[in-house]
Amino acid sequence: MPPYTNLPLSPAELAYLHTSLAANPPIRPDARKSTQFRPLIAERNVLPTANGSARVCFADGTEAVVGVKAEVEKTRTAYSQHDGEAVGTLKEVEQEEEGSKGKGRSEWLDLTIDVPGLRDDDALPTFLSALLAEPLLADTGLLDRLYINDRYHWRLYIDILLLSQPLSYPLPLLSLTTHLALLSTRLPALLSEQNEDPLFNDDWEASTYLYPPTTTQNQPTQTPPVTLLVVSVADTILFDPSKEELAVADAVIAVSVTTTSDTTTNIDTTTINNRTTNSATTPLALKLLALRTIDPPSRLTPHTPGSSADTDAASVWMPPRGGMPRSLVGKVVKACLEPGGVGEEVLRGLEGVEW
Amino acid sequence: MTSLKRPHASTTPTTTLSSKTYLRTLKSGKVQKIVRELYLRQDIPCSSQLCSACLDLQPSGFHKKTAPFVLSPTPAGTKNYPQGHYLVPDTNAFLSAMDLFESEGVFQDVVVLQTVLEEVKNRSLPLYNRLIALTKNDGKRFYVFFNDFRLETFVQREAGETINDRNDRAVRQSCIWYAEHLQQAVSARKSARCPAVVMLSDDRDCLRKAKAEGVTCSTLEDYVFALPDADRLLDMVASSKENRVTKEGKAQLLYPDYLSMSAMLTGVKSGTLHQGNFNVSPYNYLEGTVHVPAFDRSLIIQGRENSNRAVSGDIVVVEVLPKDQWKAPSSKVIEEEDVGKNENPENEDGAAEGIVTEQERRALQEEVKRVHGRSTEGQAQPTAKVVGIIKRNWRQYVGHIDKDSVRSRAKESRAQQTVFLVPMDKKVPKIRVRTRQAASLLGQRVLVTIDSWDRESRYPVGHFIRSLGELETKGAETEALLLEWDVQYRPFPKTVLDCLPAEGHGWKVPASTDDPGWQGRRDLRDLLVCSIDPPGCVDIDDALHAKKLPNGNFEVGVHIADVSHFVKPGNAMDKEASLRGTTVYLVDKRIDMLPSLLGTDLCSLKPYVERYAFSVIWEVDSNADIVSSSFTKSVIRSREAFAYEAAQLRIDDQSQQDDLTQGMRHLMMLSKKLRAKRMAAGALNLASPEVRVETESETSDPVDVKTKQLLDTNQLVEEFMLLANISVAAKNYEAFPQVALLRRHAAPPKTNFEELSNQLKTKKGMELKTDSSRALADSLDACQDPANPFFNTLVRILATRCMMSAEYFCSGTQSYPEFRHYGLASEIYTHFTSPIRRYADLEAHRQLAAAIDYEPLDASLQSKSKLEGVCKNINVRHRNAQMAGRASVEYYVGQALKGRVLEEEGFVMRIFSNGFVVFVPRFGIEGLIRLREMSGEEGREPESVFNAEEYWLQIQGKEVERKVELFQKIKVRISDEAEEGTGKRKIRLQLV
């Protein structure tokens, strides 16, 4: 059982935490604001021989390293289905893109997580890798970029290594590190044309970024998705929960967001865009890629047997039940996607990490 | 959190760690990112003898030895740098002017930067090897400075900087450092003269930056211009792109572009394109063939456009043309000097003519007409066009200047002009060369190299290397043919001579049998051994003996010089020998594989002295069947060295009844039986035109030409050598099934004989069976023409040309049935009997010595890949040596015929629609008689009818009217004439 699940907190302490978090404004144990993240230290390109890599340290001592390696692989059969076409409204954009659009395939991505003390097939790593892979796969732009030609593609190995014990739920840490690693990932520049056997420029400096950094202001950036962990306690939502906050959360959801090159899909963002065009930096156009509820560890907290079951007050602490109300989910999504919101703040913050 | 990153990027003056990153594509197609860490140091010396600081600093190696400093304290000065100078050339300087750097006494005190060296390696491996050889040459004073490992000269690549820019900057940085460093060294010595450090570059941008940074620099051309003898030197610089750019605006692209490398490789892999070696037909310079595995017959490439700038010998990628464009091979002789006579080398764009001149088109068009007119569909062979070149196999070519292409003949004229150089090898196109010394090079044999062949140029562009001397002089012609066949003829370097025994000619087989040299050796000094060789032979490889045993059987021994005792694997002498591969015999000269101390003395099985030998001893019954065989290292004393004729006389002389003569008679008797058995097994008796040139002993001027005579004693030696080779091959293969060095002769594919058997059938009604070597031998025997005793030999000569060539190989690379030697009808074969003159034999000796547990097998002989490399090289060397020998004979035959007019018998060997090839057995020469030469008027062909199916040519000229048929015996007049355009002497045949 991961250590973050059984905190040595008494029912009274749990109840106290719950109450202070439910207050308006919420009082978090480390005095953060509800959307504020814990300080973290990050650096990219820590692994010299990987195509891209990053390392992130959270203030609570958890630490992760992600390495991304790309390998040329022969495509087994000629492609037949267009995975990306479900979106439907992308026709014009598709015309302009070169032939790679919609040719990416999900098996080209290989994501593994290594958590110390846990086996590969334990529930936590398996679940985490599914959670992390999901937005990457949903963002077909990534897979399409792995397309070289009809006969060859890149196979991307994302190796995630948690260096410390999983003191708090490691999803945000791993997601941020993966995001950074992918941002720094470069693929060798292709010299050959069309369907020839691929031949690459041997100059590493000439290699291209998997997510090319923006050059002009107005061009929407392509960024890898980032998955944020949000908890709800009563009516408040809290971003980046610490392990104590997780222990009393009513519900936990993971929200994956990314920037989008397409401004029509999200009406909210377009309208908001119009409102804020005169601000110095163009806000990022964000889109929601995935949203998942996670079984909160608070469910496993001990239920204190009350003196009598009929009064609420009698019970000091009741493990929460049920999920997150729709209204709260809406609030979370809005907080993530709105300009100047949490999503933009996180993405901008990570973009600024030194090379 | 402390950063985990190694601080590669930040090179503050104190950090000594840096890195460089690059990508490597593996054979499997995978791409690897490689990061190399660089540890920068400060003790890499400048190697100038001016500097004492570096002398103290320099790390010492094994035995506290330090490398001596290379650069002279008083380097030579020039007009521009009177105080003396060190040169720091950049990559392009080496790439474009390697010949210049190599030429004696011109460039000295050169700093070769590591950056430059690596770039040269990436761009051209052969040039890199030449540069490395230069740096090892003591007299040249070339010093490799590892600038990328020295802290002060290391340059970190900046963001967005191209590799080239970074490397240029590294060169400049090194120049700055050298200049400063020398300044310090000089002031420490309190001497006034500080040599300049001159950077050589042709990159304008780099020169500009260098000037801004205060680096002394010069373009290559400016630098050379200031040297004495600049004209000759400037010709050695490859014509740079810069010079050609001026005309680019109007230049027309004559040739189609090549495909990209990746497109070619993809095409070859998927089978839509084919890769092969480009060979030009010796009779028609516009037609080439490429043999590719996918087709039985070679693909034909016709015309300039299809051959698309490929030069004979290049590895090309071709695309097969559609079937309606398939053709029969040309039946016409087209020579470049006839067709392209009036071309002007200055006319670069050739826009008026396009890629194919009018004459050429006409020459080819008749061709097409004729082929179309014929109904035989099966004759058409697939044709192809070159779409790209995998590897250029350009080498240095020997040739002469086309006299007509020289505009001003005045010797003083220093004007630069473009001239055509006609290579000696007819398969190589004319080379356009810019020179200032055209007039003085006229009538000389010159060495040139091809630099490039651009799309806008009809002919390749090259530059002069040096002149070999006057045409027709013996020295120049001999050197020319050695160069043409890539024979190493420089004297053995000191490192090789150091491997010789210290005693020199005084070396003797140790007297005491306790000496380590005797260990494992049998004492065979009491055997009556003798050697039989051509007259005047000094490198005696083999000796023989035979004696009758009490049981009626015979003991026969073949004793081979024990070269492997003197040449240990892996030392300098062994390396040199493996490079040379074989001794090359020219008419008046022998280019040895081993230093002559070994070849002609210590190893040579000279008579009356004791020598180490490697002996193969058989017991054979009177039917010449082997009862048992043994192999041993031995010591022998040859009783006599016979020439073939002397041996024959001795055997025939019944008055001689001594044991030695008796032994020789036994050998003779056994050899005849062996030969009969071999013939019965289907060995081929092939023939090649062999002549011997008799020379005057003093001047070695040719006096007469004789065809070689074959005596029974020749065959005696041959039979036993074959037997020894076969026995050793079997033994080596048994001991080392994976790495035995063997020789095989593949059965020729049936298609090779198609033409010949068709010719025999239609002309003589004879049939050539080619199912097996036995069938072929029998049908060759049956090819007799009672009226014409030479006819049989002629057929054999032609049949030999249809064969594959025998080759050395490593047993692990082929399956056992493939080992077969077709010509000898032997299952397994190797070369063992001539270790003095063939490297393969030496390797076989080493393997046999290991097989009999005499010594352990050297590691180099246990590795299949290494052995394959050796085989590949000696196969090439072997062929080249044969070619060089033949060319030498040809030259001397020409010299012997000089000024004479003879009438001789000849045979028609091959018929073209505009001429025929005649073979003159008396001199072993083959010559072309063209119809054009038979009409009275110059340059006009008489009317003629050519029948390709029946191989005859009817000439209906005004004066001559006759029919020439294949295999016909005709009389020809042989004379020699100096060719007008070139001043070159040529043998000319005329029909009488």
Compute the number of structural domains of chain A.
Answer: 1
CATH superfamily of chain A: GHMP Kinase, N-terminal domain
User: What's the overall geometry of chain B?
Assistant: globular
Sheet/helix structural class of chain A: alpha+beta
What's the total helix number of chain A?
9
| Mean pLDDT reading of chain B | 83
Strand order of the biggest β-sheet of chain A:
1-2-3-5-4
- At the first level of CATH, what is the class of chain A? Alpha Beta
SS field, number of helical segments of chain B: 27
Shape label of chain A? elongated
Estimate the helix proportion of chain B, in percent: 25-40%
- Summing up helix and strand content along with how strands pair, one would put the structural category of chain B as alpha+beta
Tally of distinct domains of chain B: 5
CATH topology-level fold name of chain A:
Ribosomal Protein S5, domain 2
Which regions of chain B are unreliable across 5 or more consecutive residues at pLDDT < 50?
244-249, 348-354, 371-378
What proportion of the residues of chain B form beta strands (DSSP E)?
A: 15-25%
Query: What CATH architecture of chain A would you give?
Result: 2-Layer Sandwich
Beta fraction of chain A = 15-25%
Largest sheet of chain B: 6 strands, mixed
Q: If you had to describe this structure to a student in words, what would you say it looks like?
A:
The complex is a heterodimer of chains A (355) and B (992). Chain A is built from nine helices and eleven strands. Chain A is of the alpha+beta class and 355 residues long. In chain A, strand 8 (226-233) and strand 9 (236-239) form a beta hairpin. The two termini of chain A are 37 Å apart. In chain A, 41% of the residues are buried. Chain B has 992 residues and is an alpha+beta fold. Chain B folds into five domains: 74-237, 5'-nuclease (Rossmann fold, 3-Layer(aba) Sandwich); 261-391, Beta Barrel (OB fold (Dihydrolipoamide Acetyltransferase, E2P)), CATH 2.40.50.690; 396-484, OB fold (Dihydrolipoamide Acetyltransferase, E2P), CATH 2.40.50; 494-741 and 823-887, no CATH class; 898-991, Beta Barrel (OB fold (Dihydrolipoamide Acetyltransferase, E2P)). In chain B, 31% of the residues lie in helices and 24% in strands. Chain B is built from 27 helices and 37 strands. In chain B, the strands form eleven sheets. In chain B, strands 18, 19, 20, 21, 24 and 25 form a six-stranded mixed beta sheet that branches. The termini of chain B are far apart. The chains are: A alpha+beta (355), B alpha+beta (992). The A-B interface holds A 41, 43, 45-46, 48-51, 55, 57, 63, 65, 70-72, 74, 152, 188, 191-193, 195-205, 207 and B 1, 3-6, 8, 19, 21-25, 29-31, 33-35, 157, 159-161, 163, 260-263, 265-266, 269.
